[in-house]
Amino acid sequence: MKHVLVLDLDQATRVALTELMGQHGIRSTHVSERAHLFGVLSKEMVDALLIDVTTGEMATFIRHLTSLTDAPILVVGAEKTIEDEKVLGLEAGASDYICKPVGHRELVARLKAAMRDKLASDPMRARRSYSFSGYELSIRQRLLTHPELGQIGLTKAEFNLLTVFLANPKKILSRDRLLTASRLHEGEIFDRSLDALILRLRRKIEFDPANPRLVRTVRGSGYLFDSDVSIEIRNTPKR
After folding, report:
1. Do 181 and 101 fall into the same domain?
2. Does 144 lie in the same domain as 228?
3. Is the pLDDT of residue 44 over 90?
């Protein structure tokens, strides 16, 4: 089931959207504050974001979101939004800009189209999965699973960091390489420190984070992912 994260200040609108999404088989999480939105993004995988924001802060906010999630971002703007504002939002990274009022059918259609386009834009990436030390990482879902631990959600920075480790097993990776891969320099919300990000990842994949066996520190050089890794590319059925 697809998961859409909605930011809207109006409670009545949030309730209406909850019902609308449910009618179309879409799970939705609705928040009224950015801090709550960031909290959801740090813990859960979302397939799209639908945000209602003021134009004055829109571009900065969208750029911040694109550093945290690969999910398409759809902006809901005022009824008489000028063209420059729409272009500003799209250039900042929004997938679509929707002006009020918008019909329910059109809104759902645009959401589904954005999610479809995102998946189709990188079909090889969508079919890829990594296996290591009993874990499996689905690239499409950005979801880590383990037969004993179940599903383990990853933030975008954690996901980016783990994938660069999995693509380079048993190789020493410099701090600069890992900073670039995890995009910490673009604005990790809660913690800009690579070491803190490594610690968070260890807490999710190490059985004893205090004595890590997978993500090892190489003093003066960086970090090394000490595990055999296999990659699987699944065939996508024709539609």
Report:
1. no
2. yes
3. no
* CA neighbours closer than 13 Å in the CB half-sphere of residue 171: 12
- Of 83, 101, 121, the position where a domain reaches its end is 121
Q: Is the dihedral of CA 39, 42, 44, 50 positive or negative?
A: positive
Tell me if 239 is assigned to some domain.
no
Q: Which of 137, 111, 129 is nearest to 201 (CA)?
A: 137
* pTM higher than the cut 0.85: no
Task: Give exposure, 11-38, as e/b (b: 16+ Cβ within 10 Å).
Answer: eeebeebbebbeebebebbbbeebeebb
The two three-digit tokens of residue 135, written as one number: 């874990």
Look up residue 18 and give its two tokens: 């909850």
Q: Are residues 213 and 173 both part of a single domain?
A: yes
The three-class DSSP label of residue 63 is helix
**Total number of domains in the chain:** 2
